[in-house]
Design brief:
Layout lengths: L1 E4 L12 H10 L8 E3 L8 H15 L6 E4 L1 H44 L1 H9 L4 H38 L7 H20 L1
Antiparallel strand pairs: 1-2, 1-3
Helix pairs in contact: 1-2, 3-5, 3-6, 5-6
Length: about 200
């Protein structure tokens, strides 16, 4: 952990209690004229549980005046991980809604296609075509439509990301695995919604 002193020039004497004495030992009885004073622990897992105890002890030692701030890298890392998880949930939810919207669009397109080609379907059935063959024909059309949409989406996303990387002056890294996964998902949406 790291203890940052807000006003190191005139810190009051700490009150005497077991916790306060332990913290005062690390802080030099509140009269250290430096900006930061490390507090060491035996293990990294001991830092986060000790933070409330240290903050309470410092509040007692400084008679309720907030003159000292405790900064723990583990706490910052935990907050960063929580923010990252929330961001992943948010982007995942947006992607799910987009996939559902695309799937419903494919269903409507295929329904219109089947309605328009009723006569062709009748001719094929009369000439000996099986029902699963017709189903396969329309399923292939749905997969091709979805896969084409996936390719267009990957191209547009790559182009927009390149432009943003130039504007923000950050490096751009193309990840084939992520883009391949996006393409597979788009084709899978075509299979699922095209079938139904």
């Amino acid at each position: 952990g790291r203890v940052v002193d807000a006003h190191p020039e005139a810190l009051p004497e700490p009150r005497v209690d077991a916790i306060g004495q332990l913290v005062a030992t690390h802080l030099g009885h509140g009269r250290l004229g430096q900006d930061a004073h490390p507090v060491e622990f035996a293990a990294a897992d001991d830092v986060l549980p000790a933070l409330p105890v240290l903050r309470r002890a410092l509040a007692i030692a400084h008679r309720g005046v907030e003159e000292v701030q405790i900064v723990a890298p583990q706490e910052i890392l935990r907050q960063a991980k929580l923010a990252q998880r929330n961001f992943l949930v948010l982007t995942g939810s947006i992607a799910l809604v987009a996939l559902l919207a695309g799937g419903i669009g494919i269903m409507n397109t295929m329904l219109a296609s089947v309605t328009e080609r009723t006569r062709e379907i009748g001719v094929r059935l009369a000439s000996g075509a099986l029902e699963h063959e017709l189903m396969l024909q329309f399923l292939i059309a749905a997969v091709v439509l979805a896969a084409l949409g996936g390719v267009i989406g990957i191209v547009l996303a790559t182009a927009m990301t390149l432009v943003l990387a130039q504007v923000m002056q950050v490096p751009y890294l193309f990840n084939p695995a992520i883009n391949g996964l996006a393409f597979v998902f788009s084709a899978a949406i075509g299979v699922v919604f095209g079938y139904f």
